[in-house]
Amino acid sequence: MTDSIFLASIMIFVLVTLLPILFHLTKYLGSKSDNVRKNEPVEGGIRLTHKDSFDGFNVKFFLVGIIFLIFDVEILFMFPWGLNLRELGLFALLEMFVFMTLLIGGLVYVYKSGMLKWT
């Protein structure tokens, strides 16, 4: 028990002393660039962030984000299924094929309707 506490305290001490040293080294050893374009605020590809709040905003940013979240959350359903496939059996395999078919159909619909085009 005391060996693990000793090891943990050494690791914490090394991290507490090593991280600030590394941060200071990157400040001195890193590249320095005082470019005007580099220091401009950029959020999501939009250069002017200090516009009037009543100006229009492109809905494509939100639409692509929502589509990404929908298809990304589906991975959360597929990962546990893949881990337990042997125990779940053939019925779960067929269910996942139906699920994947619905996902691919949704992706085809999104692509055909032009929701992913920026022009």
UniProtKB/TrEMBL annotation:
Membrane topology (UniProt): Multi-pass membrane protein
Single GO MF descriptor: quinone binding
GO CC field: NADH dehydrogenase complex; plasma membrane
Keywords in alphabetical order: Cell membrane, Membrane, NAD, Quinone, Translocase, Transmembrane, Transmembrane helix, Transport
Domain of life: Bacteria
Transmembrane regions listed in the UniProt entry: 6-25, 61-82, 88-111
Compartments it resides in: Cell membrane; Membrane
EC number(s) given by UniProt: 7.1.1.-
Catalysed reactions listed for this entry: a quinone + NADH + 5 H(+)(in) = a quinol + NAD(+) + 4 H(+)(out)
Enzyme class: translocase
InterPro entries in the cross-refs: NADH_UbQ/plastoQ_OxRdtase_su3 (IPR000440), NDAH_ubi_oxred_su3_sf (IPR038430)
UniProt family annotation: Belongs to the complex I subunit 3 family.
Job of this protein: NDH-1 shuttles electrons from NADH, via FMN and iron-sulfur (Fe-S) centers, to quinones in the respiratory chain.
Protein name from the UniProt record: NADH-quinone oxidoreductase subunit
Taxonomic path: Bacteria, Pseudomonadati, Campylobacterota, Epsilonproteobacteria, Campylobacterales
